[in-house]
């Protein structure tokens, strides 16, 4: 079930104000780029805009009623004139865009209007992106394209220039924590999960996953052995880290958990305990914060951020982690 207008307005008031003005004045762009972090409401807002356009009884002329047949079908992703394109595997392929273009050329099934939502638009292959340009350069009347991305810098400038960009702001952690708890996320993990994801479904899944609990334990253990000798840290990588963090997505999450741990240690030193992610590990944090320095933590955080960049550039994960451990023990940056 996608979010309602009021729910999205609470999360992204500026975005909703812009859309309200465009809808009420009937000045919609033919193509939008919704950019922002995962879980900030981009997809829900795209679906909301589609409902605003197809709703048979909109409130105030633009707020979807959520009860008409069109709103219900869009909420269940089965309206014939609202098309959702998502990556096929790791990318959006040229054939997916070609199939979309075939739909462009047809009249709407129930009206002349069509809406297309492309999720992770930055993952289009070069051929797919070039194919999409044709539609963006020669838009069909009553057709609205909505491109969603977390990394607009990876998209073709020619596509960006043909879209009206709407930026989604990060959601305040305090708000997210309460939202997560209200919807069933375990309270002790909510502050940590609010730093990892803005997506409720992901937070719920992690909250009830033994894998996530074990991931935290491995991260804490790795930090502890880092203070000892390189051999022990390397053994921990081989015996615990690599078997647990197998996929690239999991490896990135492991680095995020390590980064948040270092930030928490720094917050303890700065007397900012209200910002902690690992609130359920307060005594552990207080103990270990006494045995390191601000400078050391800052250097280690820089090293982890460097490792995340290397991971996204497809560096070998095992080599990356081994180098990271050595850099963190030295306290120097990983660049």
Automatic annotation (TrEMBL):
Enzyme category, top tier: transferase
Entry superkingdom: Bacteria
GO molecular function, one term: DNA-directed DNA polymerase activity
Keyword Glycoprotein: no
Signal peptide: none
SUPFAM superfamilies: P-loop containing nucleoside triphosphate hydrolases
Protein name: DNA polymerase III subunit delta'
Organism: Cytobacillus stercorigallinarum
Taxonomic lineage from the root: Bacteria, Bacillati, Bacillota, Bacilli, Bacillales
């Amino acid at each position: 079930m996608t979010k309602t207008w009021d729910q999205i307005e609470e999360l992204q008031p500026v975005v909703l104000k812009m859309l309200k003005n465009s809808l009420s004045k009937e000045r919609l762009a033919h193509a939008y780029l919704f950019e922002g972090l995962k879980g900030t409401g981009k997809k829900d807002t795209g679906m909301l805009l589609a409902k605003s356009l197809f709703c048979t009884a909109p409130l105030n002329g633009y707020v979807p009623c959520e009860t008409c047949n069109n709103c219900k079908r869009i909420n269940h992703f089965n309206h014939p004139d609202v098309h959702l394109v998502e990556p096929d595997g790791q990318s959006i392929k040229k054939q997916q865009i070609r199939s979309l273009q075939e739909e462009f050329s047809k009249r709407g099934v129930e009206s002349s209007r069509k809406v297309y939502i492309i999720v992770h638009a930055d993952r289009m292959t070069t051929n797919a992106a070039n194919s999409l340009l044709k539609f963006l350069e020669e838009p069909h009347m009553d057709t609205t394209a909505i491109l969603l991305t977390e990394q607009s810098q990876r998209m073709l400038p020619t596509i960006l220039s043909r879209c009206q960009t709407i930026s989604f702001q990060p959601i305040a952690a305090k708000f997210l924590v309460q939202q997560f708890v209200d919807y069933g996320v375990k309270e002790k993990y909510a502050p940590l999960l609010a730093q990892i994801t803005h997506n409720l479904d992901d937070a719920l899944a992690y909250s009830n996953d033994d894998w996530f609990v074990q991931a935290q334990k491995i991260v804490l253990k790795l930090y502890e052995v880092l203070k000892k000798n390189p051999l022990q840290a390397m053994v921990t990588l081989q015996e615990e880290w690599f078997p647990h963090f197998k996929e690239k997505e999991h490896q990135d999450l492991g680095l995020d958990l390590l980064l948040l741990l270092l930030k928490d240690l720094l917050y303890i030193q700065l007397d900012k305990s209200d910002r902690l992610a690992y609130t359920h590990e307060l005594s552990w944090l207080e103990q270990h914060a006494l045995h390191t320095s601000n400078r050391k933590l800052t250097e280690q955080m820089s090293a982890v951020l460097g490792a995340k960049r290397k991971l996204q550039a497809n560096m070998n994960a095992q080599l990356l982690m081994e180098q990271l451990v050595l850099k963190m023990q030295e306290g120097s940056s990983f660049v």
